Amino acid sequence: MTARVLDGKAVARQIFDDIRRAVAARVSVGKTRPKLATVLVGDDPASVQYVELKQKNAKQVGIDSEDHRLPALTTTEELLSLVRRLSADETVSAILVQQPAPRQIDMARVVQALDPVKDVDGFHPINAGLVALGLPGGVEPCTPAGIIELLDRAGVQIEGANAVVVGRSNLVGKPTALLLLKRNATVTVCHTRTRDLASHTRDADILVAAAGKANLISKEMIKSGASVVDVSTNWVDGRQVGDLGPGVDEVAGWLTPNPGGVGPMTRAMLIKNTYEAEVRRRP
Ligand code: NAP
């Protein structure tokens, strides 16, 4: 078998087109144009690149943006002061604080200082709580929402599927498991204390690999025909790879490229969340 491609780049393009049209329609009837504020502390090259791509995507769809750069030695209090100012700024629809932030920053406090309506990443406890409880009105985090969208657009059946998520972080693994559960998958969450990881992954109709460990999942650990989403961004010899070993495409039914799978979907959902944040604020 050669796996079919879960083409994040192509689906992201469709989402950007939808949002571009929606923004243009909104502005044409005299309503406000959404604005995204990005905040980056320090100059980690990968983070700089991610922020620049997000700024570029906003521009491409007609969303205004502000780009706030703070030095690497910024304190939590200094970052809190910027986040509070942006939360109170009537012209800002959505705020993204790029993670990971430098060690001295207490991100839990920073995230809680965001206006939940402008929390475009869905990390504020109010949004995480609404999503966890399955209540309406919460902002779904971008990477997990992007994974679900990618599976949906490929026609992968989530309801009733055995879904295995490798990773339980608050950013990726846990919310992905919750969204799959909401869609009536039977969900198993694996982590570093999981005994016999392969016994779980081999049972997965849908496998989401988000461990951040290159070559963690070999082709022998994949069920034939499974839909496999490789979230991780590991750098090996200057090249981006995920968690999957060689030959997974020979066994899987659907597979995300890496790069070109979840990354573009994450950015597409960020732009969608920015648009929706403005619509919620000013319908
Ligand atoms: P993280 O906070 O480091 O979490 C990694 C998770 O994987 C943890 O829950 C950890 O278990 C688990 N894990 C690590 N090694 C394992 C192993 N050998 N066996 C089983 N489980 C293992 O990372 P994250 O923020 O969730 O991100 C995960 C990956 O996705 C990273 O590579 C990140 O760069 C990437 N990412 C990509 C996108 C995108 O848009 N493409 C977006 C976000 C993140 P414990 O909890 O037991 O430690």
Strand percentage lies at 15-25%
Write down the overall geometry. globular
Main sheet properties: 6 strands, parallel
**Strand line-up in the sheet with most strands:** 1-11-8-7-5-6
CATH architecture of the largest domain: 3-Layer(aba) Sandwich
End-to-end separation in angstroms reads 48 Å
Ligands (ions, cofactors included) = NADP nicotinamide-adenine-dinucleotide phosphate
> What is the element string, with H for helices and E for strands?
EHEHEHEHHHEHEHEEEEHEH
Instruction: Assign the CATH class of the largest domain.
Output: Alpha Beta
Low-pLDDT runs of 5+ residues are none
CATH topology of the largest domain: Rossmann fold
| Number of separate helices | 10
Q: What is the average of the pLDDT values? A: 97
| CATH homology superfamily of the largest domain | NAD(P)-binding Rossmann-like Domain
Instruction: Tally the structural domains.
Output: 2
Secondary structure: number of strands = 11
Give me the secondary-structure category. Answer: alpha/beta
Radius of gyration in whole Å, from Cα? 19 Å
Helix content: 40-55%
